[in-house]
Amino acid sequence: MNLPKDTKPILWGAVIGAALCIGLGFTWGGWVTGGTARKDASVAAHNATVVALAPYCAERFRAQSDSATRLAELAKASTWERSTVVEKGGFAMMPGSTSSDSDLARACVELLMAPATPKA
User: Fold this and answer.
1) Would you say residue 119 has pLDDT above 70?
2) What DSSP string runs through 59-117?
3) What is the average pLDDT score of the chain?
4) In a domain, 20, yes or no
5) Is residue 119 one of the residues assigned to a domain?
6) Is residue 21 one of the residues assigned to a domain?
7) Domain count of the chain?
8) What is the DSSP letter of 120?
């Protein structure tokens, strides 16, 4: 079988074009593998859960009988120790989990330490 003489340059052009397309797609085009997509979705779901549960955590912390004392204790603690105080109190537990979540504790501390805004 005889191929036309322009077949070799056309095939090389197709191979180089495909390689460039793949290279540009994964670098600038935003393409990702299935594993990366699953990891990103898992991180997004965890972050959404933290955002949803942080107000509940802060409200539970403020609902303690000695909340004024606990808030003062929390304010006196260093910035690095505040989330540990919330975790030790058991307020940073994700539903169904047996251990505290440090991301939830940090978000809870941010809400607790935020200046109170007057209600309209």
Assistant:
1) no
2) HHHHTSTTHHHHHHHHHHS-TTTHHHHHHHTT-SBPTT-SSB-HHHHHHHHHHHHSPPP
3) 90
4) no
5) no
6) no
7) 1
8) -
